[in-house]
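Service request form, structural biology core

Requester: graduate student, group of Dr. S.
Request type: structure prediction, single chain
Budget code: on file
Notes: please return the result as C-alpha coordinates.

Sequence provided:
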Amino acid sequence: MSTTMQPFNLTLTSNSPPPSFTYDTIAANDLISRANYVYGFCALLGLASACFLLFGFVQSYRACRGLVWLDTLLWAFSGFQLLLLLLSLSSVAHRPNYLETTELGCAALAFMVNLASLCGLFLLVLMGYTLTYDPPTHTLMKRPGVCVGLVVLISFLCCLVLARLRNSTLITDRTNKCIIDPTKAGSYYAIAKLCLGVLIPFIILLGLLIGSCIRQWKSRSRFLSGSENGPVFLAVAAVLFVCQLFHCTALVRGARMNQTAELSPYEKAFMDLVEFVMFSGSCVCLVLVLLLHRPSRESLLEVMRRIGSCCRGLGGRQTHRHIMAPQIEIADTQSYDF
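Core staff response, request fulfilled:
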Protein backbone atom coordinates (compact mmCIF):
# COMPACT_ATOMS: atom_id res chain seq x y z
CA MET A 1 0.00 0.00 0.00
CA SER A 2 1.62 3.20 -1.18
CA THR A 3 0.53 6.64 -0.31
CA THR A 4 1.33 9.71 -2.37
CA MET A 5 1.75 13.00 -0.65
CA GLN A 6 -0.06 15.83 -2.37
CA PRO A 7 1.68 19.23 -2.26
CA PHE A 8 0.08 21.76 -0.02
CA ASN A 9 -0.30 25.12 -1.75
CA LEU A 10 -1.01 28.20 0.36
CA THR A 11 -2.69 30.87 -1.74
CA LEU A 12 -3.52 34.33 -0.46
CA THR A 13 -6.90 35.32 -1.74
CA SER A 14 -7.05 38.65 0.04
CA ASN A 15 -6.66 41.79 -2.08
CA SER A 16 -5.60 43.94 0.84
CA PRO A 17 -2.34 45.87 0.45
CA PRO A 18 0.74 44.80 2.41
CA PRO A 19 1.18 46.26 5.89
CA SER A 20 4.18 48.37 4.85
CA PHE A 21 2.11 50.14 2.18
CA THR A 22 -0.63 50.84 4.72
CA TYR A 23 1.85 52.29 7.20
CA ASP A 24 3.38 54.47 4.48
CA THR A 25 -0.05 55.74 3.50
CA ILE A 26 -0.91 56.67 7.09
CA ALA A 27 2.42 58.45 7.56
CA ALA A 28 2.00 60.32 4.27
CA ASN A 29 -1.51 61.42 5.19
CA ASP A 30 -0.25 62.65 8.56
CA LEU A 31 2.42 64.70 6.79
CA ILE A 32 -0.15 66.21 4.42
CA SER A 33 -2.45 67.08 7.32
CA ARG A 34 0.32 68.97 9.12
CA ALA A 35 1.22 70.83 5.95
CA ASN A 36 -2.45 71.64 5.50
CA TYR A 37 -2.57 73.33 8.92
CA VAL A 38 0.50 75.41 8.09
CA TYR A 39 -0.95 76.47 4.76
CA GLY A 40 -4.25 77.30 6.43
CA PHE A 41 -2.43 79.79 8.65
CA CYS A 42 -0.71 81.29 5.58
CA ALA A 43 -4.06 81.51 3.81
CA LEU A 44 -5.55 83.44 6.74
CA LEU A 45 -2.67 85.92 6.56
CA GLY A 46 -3.19 86.27 2.83
CA LEU A 47 -6.93 86.86 3.20
CA ALA A 48 -6.37 89.45 5.93
CA SER A 49 -3.80 91.21 3.75
CA ALA A 50 -6.23 91.20 0.84
CA CYS A 51 -8.89 92.86 3.00
CA PHE A 52 -6.46 95.64 3.99
CA LEU A 53 -5.42 96.04 0.35
CA LEU A 54 -9.06 96.41 -0.67
CA PHE A 55 -9.54 99.06 2.01
CA GLY A 56 -6.44 100.91 0.78
CA PHE A 57 -7.66 100.70 -2.81
CA VAL A 58 -10.97 102.31 -1.88
CA GLN A 59 -9.25 105.00 0.19
CA SER A 60 -6.78 105.87 -2.57
CA TYR A 61 -9.49 105.98 -5.21
CA ARG A 62 -11.65 108.31 -3.12
CA ALA A 63 -8.75 110.58 -2.24
CA CYS A 64 -7.27 110.93 -5.74
CA ARG A 65 -10.38 110.32 -7.85
CA GLY A 66 -8.34 107.74 -9.69
CA LEU A 67 -5.18 105.67 -9.38
CA VAL A 68 -1.63 105.88 -10.67
CA TRP A 69 -1.06 103.55 -13.59
CA LEU A 70 1.48 101.34 -11.80
CA ASP A 71 -0.74 101.20 -8.73
CA THR A 72 -3.59 100.01 -10.93
CA LEU A 73 -1.47 97.15 -12.26
CA LEU A 74 -0.43 96.31 -8.71
CA TRP A 75 -4.07 96.19 -7.56
CA ALA A 76 -4.93 93.96 -10.53
CA PHE A 77 -2.02 91.67 -9.65
CA SER A 78 -3.24 91.48 -6.04
CA GLY A 79 -6.73 90.65 -7.29
CA PHE A 80 -5.48 87.68 -9.31
CA GLN A 81 -3.42 86.46 -6.35
CA LEU A 82 -6.54 86.67 -4.18
CA LEU A 83 -8.47 84.66 -6.77
CA LEU A 84 -5.73 82.03 -6.75
CA LEU A 85 -5.87 81.95 -2.96
CA LEU A 86 -9.63 81.44 -2.96
CA LEU A 87 -9.34 78.64 -5.52
CA SER A 88 -6.80 76.90 -3.29
CA LEU A 89 -9.43 76.49 -0.57
CA SER A 90 -10.75 73.50 -2.51
CA SER A 91 -7.52 71.73 -1.59
CA VAL A 92 -7.49 72.88 2.02
CA ALA A 93 -11.04 71.70 2.65
CA HIS A 94 -10.40 68.10 1.53
CA ARG A 95 -6.80 67.26 2.41
CA PRO A 96 -5.44 64.65 2.96
CA ASN A 97 -8.13 63.40 0.61
CA TYR A 98 -9.10 65.01 -2.69
CA LEU A 99 -12.13 66.82 -4.00
CA GLU A 100 -14.39 64.36 -5.81
CA THR A 101 -16.16 65.91 -8.78
CA THR A 102 -16.73 65.32 -12.46
CA GLU A 103 -13.78 65.48 -14.81
CA LEU A 104 -15.32 68.52 -16.48
CA GLY A 105 -15.56 70.35 -13.15
CA CYS A 106 -11.98 69.41 -12.27
CA ALA A 107 -10.79 70.63 -15.67
CA ALA A 108 -12.61 73.94 -15.13
CA LEU A 109 -10.98 74.33 -11.70
CA ALA A 110 -7.52 73.63 -13.11
CA PHE A 111 -8.19 76.07 -15.96
CA MET A 112 -9.08 78.87 -13.52
CA VAL A 113 -6.00 78.16 -11.39
CA ASN A 114 -3.74 78.33 -14.44
CA LEU A 115 -5.51 81.48 -15.67
CA ALA A 116 -5.08 83.34 -12.37
CA SER A 117 -1.45 82.24 -12.09
CA LEU A 118 -0.51 83.27 -15.64
CA CYS A 119 -2.35 86.59 -15.37
CA GLY A 120 -0.33 87.46 -12.29
CA LEU A 121 2.95 86.52 -13.99
CA PHE A 122 2.22 88.47 -17.18
CA LEU A 123 1.16 91.50 -15.15
CA LEU A 124 4.58 91.33 -13.48
CA VAL A 125 6.18 91.35 -16.93
CA LEU A 126 4.13 94.41 -17.85
CA MET A 127 5.13 96.16 -14.63
CA GLY A 128 8.78 95.37 -15.34
CA TYR A 129 8.51 96.87 -18.81
CA THR A 130 6.94 100.03 -17.41
CA LEU A 131 9.52 100.41 -14.64
CA THR A 132 12.37 99.90 -17.10
CA TYR A 133 11.36 102.04 -20.09
CA ASP A 134 8.68 104.35 -18.62
CA PRO A 135 6.56 104.74 -21.81
CA PRO A 136 4.87 108.09 -22.52
CA THR A 137 1.42 108.77 -21.14
CA HIS A 138 -0.26 109.01 -24.55
CA THR A 139 0.69 105.47 -25.63
CA LEU A 140 -1.72 102.57 -25.58
CA MET A 141 0.36 100.81 -22.92
CA LYS A 142 -0.59 103.52 -20.42
CA ARG A 143 -4.26 102.51 -20.43
CA PRO A 144 -4.86 100.09 -17.55
CA GLY A 145 -8.02 98.57 -19.00
CA VAL A 146 -6.32 97.77 -22.29
CA CYS A 147 -3.27 96.29 -20.55
CA VAL A 148 -5.26 94.09 -18.20
CA GLY A 149 -7.51 92.93 -21.05
CA LEU A 150 -4.48 92.05 -23.16
CA VAL A 151 -2.93 90.11 -20.28
CA VAL A 152 -6.15 88.16 -19.69
CA LEU A 153 -6.44 87.35 -23.42
CA ILE A 154 -2.87 86.04 -23.68
CA SER A 155 -3.28 84.04 -20.47
CA PHE A 156 -6.56 82.59 -21.73
CA LEU A 157 -4.92 81.35 -24.93
CA CYS A 158 -2.05 79.80 -22.97
CA CYS A 159 -4.53 78.09 -20.64
CA LEU A 160 -6.31 76.59 -23.63
CA VAL A 161 -3.04 74.96 -24.66
CA LEU A 162 -2.48 73.64 -21.14
CA ALA A 163 -6.07 72.36 -20.93
CA ARG A 164 -5.65 70.46 -24.19
CA LEU A 165 -2.46 68.80 -22.96
CA ARG A 166 -3.94 68.05 -19.53
CA ASN A 167 -7.27 66.60 -20.67
CA SER A 168 -6.33 64.38 -23.58
CA THR A 169 -9.08 61.87 -22.71
CA LEU A 170 -11.87 63.75 -20.98
CA ILE A 171 -15.12 62.04 -19.96
CA THR A 172 -17.31 64.90 -18.79
CA ASP A 173 -19.80 62.97 -16.62
CA ARG A 174 -17.35 60.63 -14.89
CA THR A 175 -16.69 61.37 -11.21
CA ASN A 176 -13.12 61.13 -10.03
CA LYS A 177 -10.64 62.61 -7.58
CA CYS A 178 -9.68 66.09 -8.66
CA ILE A 179 -5.95 66.89 -8.83
CA ILE A 180 -5.16 70.30 -10.29
CA ASP A 181 -1.81 69.29 -11.77
CA PRO A 182 -1.87 65.49 -12.09
CA THR A 183 1.32 63.62 -12.89
CA LYS A 184 -0.75 61.32 -15.08
CA ALA A 185 -1.24 64.20 -17.53
CA GLY A 186 2.18 63.36 -18.95
CA SER A 187 5.49 65.06 -19.52
CA TYR A 188 4.20 67.32 -22.28
CA TYR A 189 1.81 69.07 -19.91
CA ALA A 190 4.48 69.44 -17.22
CA ILE A 191 7.06 70.81 -19.68
CA ALA A 192 4.51 73.20 -21.21
CA LYS A 193 3.63 74.52 -17.76
CA LEU A 194 7.33 74.92 -16.96
CA CYS A 195 7.83 76.96 -20.12
CA LEU A 196 4.70 79.12 -19.81
CA GLY A 197 4.80 79.56 -16.04
CA VAL A 198 8.53 79.94 -15.39
CA LEU A 199 10.89 80.14 -18.35
CA ILE A 200 9.12 82.60 -20.66
CA PRO A 201 7.95 85.23 -18.13
CA PHE A 202 11.07 85.18 -15.95
CA ILE A 203 13.50 85.22 -18.87
CA ILE A 204 11.67 88.34 -20.09
CA LEU A 205 11.87 89.82 -16.59
CA LEU A 206 15.59 89.05 -16.42
CA GLY A 207 16.10 90.79 -19.75
CA LEU A 208 14.15 93.81 -18.52
CA LEU A 209 16.24 94.02 -15.34
CA ILE A 210 19.46 93.82 -17.36
CA GLY A 211 18.11 96.54 -19.66
CA SER A 212 17.31 98.70 -16.65
CA CYS A 213 20.86 98.28 -15.33
CA ILE A 214 22.30 99.25 -18.73
CA ARG A 215 20.10 102.33 -18.91
CA GLN A 216 21.09 103.32 -15.40
CA TRP A 217 24.77 102.97 -16.29
CA LYS A 218 24.49 104.97 -19.52
CA SER A 219 22.17 107.79 -18.45
CA ARG A 220 23.14 107.97 -14.76
CA SER A 221 19.46 107.51 -13.92
CA ARG A 222 17.98 105.67 -10.97
CA PHE A 223 17.35 101.93 -11.05
CA LEU A 224 13.84 100.99 -12.26
CA SER A 225 13.13 104.67 -13.02
CA GLY A 226 13.38 105.50 -9.32
CA SER A 227 9.82 104.33 -8.71
CA GLU A 228 8.63 103.56 -5.18
CA ASN A 229 7.04 100.40 -6.59
CA GLY A 230 10.48 98.99 -7.46
CA PRO A 231 11.05 97.15 -4.15
CA VAL A 232 7.55 95.66 -4.27
CA PHE A 233 8.12 94.47 -7.83
CA LEU A 234 11.47 92.84 -7.04
CA ALA A 235 10.25 91.13 -3.85
CA VAL A 236 7.11 89.73 -5.46
CA ALA A 237 9.00 88.56 -8.55
CA ALA A 238 11.58 86.75 -6.42
CA VAL A 239 8.90 84.95 -4.37
CA LEU A 240 6.93 83.85 -7.42
CA PHE A 241 10.07 82.69 -9.20
CA VAL A 242 11.07 80.40 -6.32
CA CYS A 243 7.55 78.98 -5.83
CA GLN A 244 6.78 78.47 -9.52
CA LEU A 245 10.18 76.96 -10.29
CA PHE A 246 9.90 74.51 -7.40
CA HIS A 247 6.37 73.53 -8.40
CA CYS A 248 7.02 73.08 -12.12
CA THR A 249 10.29 71.16 -11.75
CA ALA A 250 8.67 68.82 -9.23
CA LEU A 251 5.76 68.34 -11.65
CA VAL A 252 8.14 67.40 -14.47
CA ARG A 253 9.94 64.97 -12.16
CA GLY A 254 6.67 63.40 -11.00
CA ALA A 255 5.38 63.04 -14.56
CA ARG A 256 8.54 61.22 -15.64
CA MET A 257 8.43 58.94 -12.59
CA ASN A 258 4.77 58.15 -13.25
CA GLN A 259 5.62 56.88 -16.72
CA THR A 260 7.67 54.01 -15.31
CA ALA A 261 5.78 53.09 -12.14
CA GLU A 262 3.00 54.19 -9.84
CA LEU A 263 3.99 56.86 -7.37
CA SER A 264 4.48 55.76 -3.78
CA PRO A 265 2.45 57.34 -0.95
CA TYR A 266 5.43 59.51 -0.01
CA GLU A 267 5.82 60.70 -3.60
CA LYS A 268 2.13 61.59 -3.75
CA ALA A 269 2.44 63.44 -0.46
CA PHE A 270 5.43 65.34 -1.85
CA MET A 271 3.36 66.43 -4.86
CA ASP A 272 0.67 67.72 -2.50
CA LEU A 273 3.30 69.68 -0.59
CA VAL A 274 4.53 71.13 -3.88
CA GLU A 275 1.00 72.31 -4.62
CA PHE A 276 0.85 74.02 -1.22
CA VAL A 277 4.15 75.77 -1.98
CA MET A 278 2.70 77.14 -5.21
CA PHE A 279 -0.38 78.50 -3.44
CA SER A 280 1.73 79.86 -0.58
CA GLY A 281 3.43 82.15 -3.08
CA SER A 282 0.16 84.03 -3.51
CA CYS A 283 -0.21 84.49 0.26
CA VAL A 284 3.34 85.80 0.62
CA CYS A 285 2.87 88.17 -2.32
CA LEU A 286 -0.24 89.69 -0.77
CA VAL A 287 1.58 90.23 2.53
CA LEU A 288 4.58 91.79 0.74
CA VAL A 289 2.39 94.16 -1.25
CA LEU A 290 0.69 95.25 1.95
CA LEU A 291 3.96 95.88 3.80
CA LEU A 292 6.12 97.34 1.01
CA HIS A 293 3.62 99.40 -0.98
CA ARG A 294 3.43 102.84 0.65
CA PRO A 295 -0.34 103.60 0.19
CA SER A 296 -1.25 100.11 1.38
CA ARG A 297 1.07 100.39 4.36
CA GLU A 298 -0.41 103.77 5.27
CA SER A 299 -3.94 102.35 5.06
CA LEU A 300 -2.88 99.50 7.36
CA LEU A 301 -1.45 101.97 9.89
CA GLU A 302 -4.62 104.04 9.67
CA VAL A 303 -6.79 101.01 10.40
CA MET A 304 -4.56 100.09 13.34
CA ARG A 305 -4.82 103.63 14.72
CA ARG A 306 -8.61 103.53 14.41
CA ILE A 307 -8.78 100.19 16.18
CA GLY A 308 -6.49 101.50 18.93
CA SER A 309 -8.56 104.66 19.40
CA CYS A 310 -11.77 102.63 19.55
CA CYS A 311 -10.27 100.34 22.19
CA ARG A 312 -9.05 103.30 24.22
CA GLY A 313 -12.48 104.92 23.91
CA LEU A 314 -14.22 101.80 25.15
CA GLY A 315 -11.77 101.49 28.05
CA GLY A 316 -12.26 105.14 29.00
CA ARG A 317 -16.02 104.83 29.04
CA GLN A 318 -15.83 101.72 31.21
CA THR A 319 -13.54 103.56 33.67
CA HIS A 320 -15.73 106.65 33.92
CA ARG A 321 -18.81 104.53 34.36
CA HIS A 322 -17.67 103.39 37.83
CA ILE A 323 -16.71 106.87 39.07
CA MET A 324 -19.68 108.46 40.79
CA ALA A 325 -19.91 112.21 40.87
CA PRO A 326 -19.88 113.55 44.46
CA GLN A 327 -23.12 115.02 45.70
CA ILE A 328 -22.91 117.71 48.39
CA GLU A 329 -26.02 118.41 50.41
CA ILE A 330 -26.13 121.39 52.80
CA ALA A 331 -28.71 121.02 55.53
CA ASP A 332 -29.75 124.09 57.52
CA THR A 333 -30.21 122.91 61.11
CA GLN A 334 -30.49 126.34 62.77
CA SER A 335 -33.99 127.44 63.81
CA TYR A 336 -35.05 131.02 63.34
CA ASP A 337 -37.69 132.61 65.66
CA PHE A 338 -39.51 135.58 64.28
